[in-house]
Amino acid sequence: MSPRKSSFARGLLWVAAALALSLGVDRLAVQWINPYFYRILVLCGLNVMLALSLNLVNGITGQFSIGHAGFMAVGAYASAAFTVYAVPQLFGVGPDASGLVIVGPLLLALLVGGLTSAAAGFLVGLPSMRLRGDYLAIVTLGFGEIIRVVILNIDAVGGARGFAGIPRRTDLAWVIAGALTTWVVLRNVLRSYHGRAFLAIREDEIAAEALGVPTTRYKVTAFVIAAFFAGVAGALFAHYTYLHTNSFTFMKSIEVIVMVVLGGMGSLLGSVLGATVLTALPEALRFASSERLIIYSLLLIVLMIARPQGILGKTEGKRGK
Amino acid sequence: MQELFQQLANGIAWGSIYALIALGYTMVYGILRLINFAHGDVYMVGAFAAYYLAIATGAGGAAASLPMALLVLLGSMLVCALVGMLIEFLAYRPVRRSSRLTALITAIGVSLFLENVGLRVFGADPKFFPQLIPPKRITLAGGIMVTNHQITVVVVSILLMVALTLFIQRTKTGKAMRAVAFHRDAASLMGIPVNRIITITFAIGSALAAAAGVLVGLTNPKIEPLMGIMPGIKAFVAAVLGGIGSIPGAVIGGLVMGVSEYLVVGYVSSTYRDAIAFVILILVLLIRPAGLLGRNVAEKV
């Protein structure tokens, strides 16, 4: 067997293992834990996807996006509209269908969500040709808010009432598979030639440019990849629970940033850890419901003063000293 | 035509409030290069400080008079100046030498802290701001209706902005502030007490936010602990729009935002009100990346 073929076979083996793991964990979770914990696990998985993808822009490429919830919203609404308006016509799969027939339509809906969001990511990434640092951050913030207001005004997707009638098709298996895919893709990108280029931009943009790295193209690429996975996460979210633009406010973007920073900028494992801890922690602090957000915010400040590189971060971003 | 002028009048009153908040953002950014996300929440604290002061002194009811209203305004500004100095000392000073992202996350932490302490202490249900000045409707030339509250907002804002400009341009402390904003380390070598200047900057910025909070209580009397989030973000956008770090820029940015919001409400749809600010911002930044009055800083290689 040639090395190329064997690596392909190994890839297939990994995919099979990942699928088995996702389905296995899902079956076990349905059997052994109550719906409340199941829901927390699903939200953990979605947040892992969001944190990992944002890490590519903020941690690895050293840009600063504070509008990640906007991409999630684009993906969520695009995929939901696809499922509600196109899937019954194209596949004859109605909202009540279940079992294996939904696999294809849902997969396609996730792709639609991801690609629409990636297109939005391209648009948002373009100003990075002219803007840097805080100004770019504000453009991403503005994008997130504009998207939310625009969706709120589209009646076909429910507007201010929220989008009703989306079939609930996401389960833990889909979410785990999504998070694993995100992780593997980002890990492979990071280890490749392109990954070095992203890191070079973070370390010193001018030096990278001088060494022939097309910085603008890489910055836009980072935005597109991050937006794709945020869009897929949004699509999974849309097929899991009640869909309303209130889920995608500025606070959601901040939440994801905090996950990335807590875990450690640029560390993939850190993002997984940060997302898990910050999804579980508010639930764990539920006994002190009115104080928990006070504790949470104090923890954040203390962490920044005591360990600004996050739990698993090794190097601190050098930008803007 | 009359409606256009009416919306312009409303927009100017509302824009003055954005401008007051934006001044604090722009001053802090000019000196520390920090987006002080907690600034919008300081504005909320200002509104609540005035609320409790007005109740304690009776300025909202029996003893309502102009001097009492002024007293409430100054009291609230004093409280917020202290809050701002405390925030700077406890949260921002320890991270001043860290990366800018660290400082930014700290600011977000402070913002969440103020909001949630506000929810705990003041309660989540909106409170009705006492009427410091009895409301009166005034018809200007051309049939434009304004309230005496709106006029108060504009007049007080103008007075504060003039005072701030004089302070920064004419006093020794103001000169020191400009020096620190220009180059912190060089200023320090020239014997300027940088820490004290930064503290003063926070005190002034927070006091201006408090004034905005009191003025907002006057015109829109419903106050609640999360009221600072949206105006905070928009005032920051106003500061960027005008060119962050520039004081006249912040004022112009605030007015542009206020007026454009009211024009959208009047002529398009009130649901798009929150989006217009960002549309304008993105357009301006694409044409002039440093904002309307911002100076383009050459990049050091």
Q: Globular, elongated, flat, extended or rod-shaped: what is the shape of chain B?
A: globular
Rg of chain A, Cα atoms, Å:
20 Å
Number of helices of chain A: 12
* Adjacency order of strands in the biggest sheet of chain B: 1-4
Oligomeric organization of the protein chains: heterodimer
Mean pLDDT across all residues of chain A, rounded? 86
- What overall geometry of chain A do the principal axes of the alpha carbons give? globular
Element string of chain A (H = helix, E = strand): HHHHHHHHHHHH
SSE order of chain B: HHHHEEEHHHHEHHH
Distance between the termini of chain B: 53 Å
Largest interface: A-B, 46 and 45 residues
Main beta sheet strand tally, sense and closure of chain A: none
Biggest sheet record of chain B? 2 strands, antiparallel
Task: Note down, in words, how this protein is organized.
- The complex is a heterodimer of chains A (321) and B (301).
- By secondary structure, chain A is mostly helical.
- Chain A is built from twelve helices and no strands.
- Chain A has helices at residues 3-32, 35-60, 68-91, 103-125, 133-152, 172-191, 193-203, 205-210, 215-238, 250-263, 268-284, 292-306.
- Chain A is globular.
- Chain B is mainly α.
- In chain B, the strands form two sheets. Chain B has a two-stranded antiparallel sheet with strand order 1-4. Chain B has a two-stranded antiparallel ribbon with strand order 2-3.
- Chains A and B meet through helix 5, helix 10 and helix 12 of A and helix 4, helix 9 and helix 11 of B.
